[in-house]
Amino acid sequence: MSQLFSFSRFSRLFRRHTAEFLPSYAMATAVLAGGIGLVLGFVVYMNVLNTTIQGMLFMLGLLAAGALFTAGIFAQYGAPKQATVALTLPASQLEKYLVGWVYSFLIFSVVYTAAFYLVDWLMVSADDWYGRPKELFHLFDAQKIYEIYFYYAALHAGALWGAIFFEKNHFLKTAFGALVLAVVLVAANYQVVKAFAGDKLQMASPFSGITLNDATGFYRVSLPEAQAQWYILLPLVLAALLWRATYLRLTEKQL
Amino acid sequence: MEFKDNEAIYLQIAGYVSEQILRQPWGPDEKIPSVRDLASELQVNPNTVMRTYEFLQNQGVVYNKRGIGFFVSPDAEARVKQFRRERFLQQELPGFFNTISLLGVGFDELQQRYQQFQAGQAALIPATTDEKQ
Amino acid sequence: MVRIRNLHFGYSRRVPLFENLSLTLERGHIYGLLGKNGAGKSTLLKNIVGLAFPQAGTCEVNGHPAAARLPVVLEDLFFLPEELHAPALTADQFVAHTAGFYPKFSEVQFHRYLAELEVPRQTKLPKLSFGQQKKFMIAFALAANTGLLVLDEPTNGLDIPSKVQFRKTLAGALSEDRCMIISTHQVRDLDSLIDTVLVVHNREIVLNADLDQLAERLTFGTAGPADTAGALYAEPSVRGRQVVRPNLGGSYGKVDLELLFNAVAGDNPAVVNYLNATPARHEPAV
């Protein structure tokens, strides 16, 4: 059996985590479904639940719920009594990390997607579409909603890092930190681009094109479509870096 | 088991084992409790019991069958009595001498009282024989 | 089994808890770890099990650094902290999910220890009283048959019958290839189980001695007020002055661990200096 990873040991650890936390995760799923139902129900009440709105809410919900769930996945390593057991349990630290990762990234994504589709389907069926055909949004159409999983990877990595770094109030601190970081990133990006684009700069978002405005009109500068599709890998790179940093943080955890 | 302060624990345990041998719960060639069982029962470190058993083995009171355990020697009773005799002479007698010396009790008086004691013991014997039957 | 060399550790950089601390623990012994509050008993145990990392020096278990938390090391050690966490599982569920991590775990022994310690089997762990939870974990720890067993204040929270059961169970569990280290304030609970006493004081191990050897080299007793000649350490008590003297007469006196601790963990280095200066005598022939 390797000291770094052994599948039998990993599955044993996974089963143990499940036995201990499944009741609370099941409850969280129920709350999640309820929450989605509430929001979608509200939209149905106010308007037609068209595919654009469905897609948007899907993406927002994935990020918000995912961040919340992930922030607490390593809670046991922050509480001293539980952490003693968790850290001295004879499994490799990679296995312990992966249990948290699998649950908060893979399993969460699947469960969330399934729950959202289920509730959405119920809402769409119940909604009166004013004669138009009822439509459920697609993950893989022109809107490229599936890309949200890539952005979730980056967000997840940040939340996971916060989960292991902060010992209490994980979500608050991580969210606050992420917010501050986002503001700084946007502001810094704008300033840097402005330094070489001049006063004509209208808008510059990170990982995207820039918009210029002068007397003749609006111009947009960005990468050609063929290259622009590679943008989506950037969050993955960020995710990979943070995932690794989180694993290392776990190995350095002391009580 | 409560241990006294003035004697090594392993020796006190040796005394306990000898007591069991004399009173016949543990007869000749019978297996005595393993080191760990006795340690557990008396709530002491097994190393101490090991010391006891080694000590008793040196005295010839018990013998060891490798892999099986410790057994009472066939002549254990005699050896125990001999060991106790030695122990009495070494440990308790000096205290006794100290006391009679301090209190001025002479050997004549001791001899007289001992003869009385022996007479009393002899008078008891027919009665005890009856009781045993 | 456990080798600590020149360990340097402190929770804050400027105030070290241990400086140049060296210690070796061997199989087949029950070590008693004593120290004042704040001296670092729990921290030393955490270094041994990999929950705290040396800032300098090494701390190895079975030849591997404890801080690496390798599964092969963790499988052969069990740490029972002073404050337990009882996961929301029943006793059977806990065993079903945790025993598999310890290759030498014996279910037969576990049930026997549970019976000896009188722990109910069917209840969910968080619903047991603290003492019962502790006994449950002690049974599990012993049944895991790990080479190293580290217990931090195990008798804390146990009622008197439980302490008796604990002593009996622990005494029956020590074997030649097991090493147990127990940190405690309640020396009276454990003094006939311990065979080697460790005292941590002033950032180092100030005493590491076999109890039998201590009994040969020191006497512990009560002395009248005028009778303190040759005493290495004396303290007042209800019965008179409690005195520690060199054992020059070869007589046996049981080691009074509490008195020894006071003598060693105070400001007076006389006892420690005496023990370090005089070589151990061989056992007198009986």
Task: Describe this entry's structure for a reader.
The complex is a heterotrimer of chains A (255), B (133) and C (286). By secondary structure, chain A is mainly alpha-helical. Helix content of chain A is 68%, strand content 5%. Chain A has helices at 7-46, 51-71, 80-88, 93-126, 148-165, 170-197, 225-228, 233-251; strands at residues 201-204, 210-214, 217-221. In chain A, strands 1-2-3 form a three-stranded antiparallel beta sheet. In chain A, strand 2 and strand 3 form a beta hairpin. The longest helix of chain A is centred in the first third of the chain and has 40 residues, at 7-46. Chain B is mainly α. Chain B has a domain at 9-76: Winged helix-like DNA-binding domain superfamily/Winged helix DNA-binding domain (Arc Repressor Mutant, subunit A), CATH 1.10.10. Chain B has a two-stranded antiparallel ribbon with strand order 1-2. With 286 residues, chain C is an alpha/beta fold. Chain C folds into two domains: 27-49 and 70-201, 3-Layer(aba) Sandwich (Rossmann fold); 209-277, no CATH class. Helices cover 30% and strands 27% of the residues of chain C. Chain C has ten helices and 13 strands. Chain C has helices at 41-49, 71-74, 91-98, 107-116, 130-143, 160-173, 187-190, 211-217, 257-264, 270-277, and strands spanning 2-9, 18-25, 29-35, 56-61, 64-65, 77-80, 148-152, 179-183, 196-201, 204-210, 218-223, 233-237, 240-246. The longest helix of chain C has 14 residues, at 130-143. Residues 281-286 of chain C have low confidence and may be disordered. Classes of the chains: A mainly alpha (255), B mainly alpha (133), C alpha/beta (286). At the A-C interface, helix 1 and helix 3 of A face helix 2, strand 6 and helix 3 of C.
| CATH superfamily descriptor of one domain in chain B | Winged helix-like DNA-binding domain superfamily/Winged helix DNA-binding domain
Largest interface: A-C, 28 and 28 residues
CATH architecture of the largest domain in chain C, please? 3-Layer(aba) Sandwich
| Overall shape of chain C | globular
Question: Strand count, sense and closure of the main sheet of chain C?
Answer: 6 strands, mixed
What is the C-alpha radius of gyration of chain C, as a whole number of Å?
Answer: 20 Å
Taking pLDDT < 50 over at least 5 consecutive residues as the criterion, the unreliable ranges of chain B are none
- The structural class of chain C is alpha/beta
How many helix segments of chain C? 10
Amino-to-carboxy terminus distance of chain C:
33 Å
What is the arithmetic mean of pLDDT of chain C?
87
Q: Helix-strand pattern of chain C, N to C? A: EEEHEEHEHHHEHEHEEHEEEHH
